[in-house]
Amino acid sequence: MPHHVERDLHGASDFAEKARQYVKEARDNQRQSRVLKVCILIALIVLIMVLILVFLDSEACTSMSIC
Predict the structure, then answer these.
(1) d(CA 51, CA 62)
(2) Which InterPro entries does this chain map to (predicted)?
(3) In this structure, is the dihedral angle defined by the CA atoms of residues 10, 12, 17 and 18, taken in order, positive or negative?
(4) From CA 1, how far away is CA 7, in angstroms rounded?
(5) What are the distances in angstroms from CA 5 to CA 1, 22, 46?
(6) 23 pLDDT exceeds 80?
(7) SS3 of 65, please?
(8) Other CB atoms closer than 10 Å to residue 33's CB: what's the count?
(9) Where are the domains positioned within the chain?
(10) Is the pLDDT of residue 6 over 90?
(11) What secondary structure letter does DSSP report for 67?
C-alpha cells in the first residue's frame, strides 16, 4: 500500500509541475498579446492622425469650406 501512495504522490507532483509551466506560459502569452494590442492601437492612432492631416491639407478640405 505505501508504494501506491508514493507513486501517486510522485504523479501528482509531476502534474503540479506541468501545471506551473502551463500557467507561466499562459502569463507570457497574455503579456505578449497585451503588448501587441498596445502597438496596434498606437499605430492606428498615428495612422488616423496622418489621414486627418492629409485631408486638412488637401483640396477636398478647402472645396468643402470646412477648413
Answers:
(1) 16
(2) T_SNARE_dom
(3) positive
(4) 10
(5) 7, 25, 61
(6) yes
(7) coil
(8) 10
(9) 2-63
(10) no
(11) -
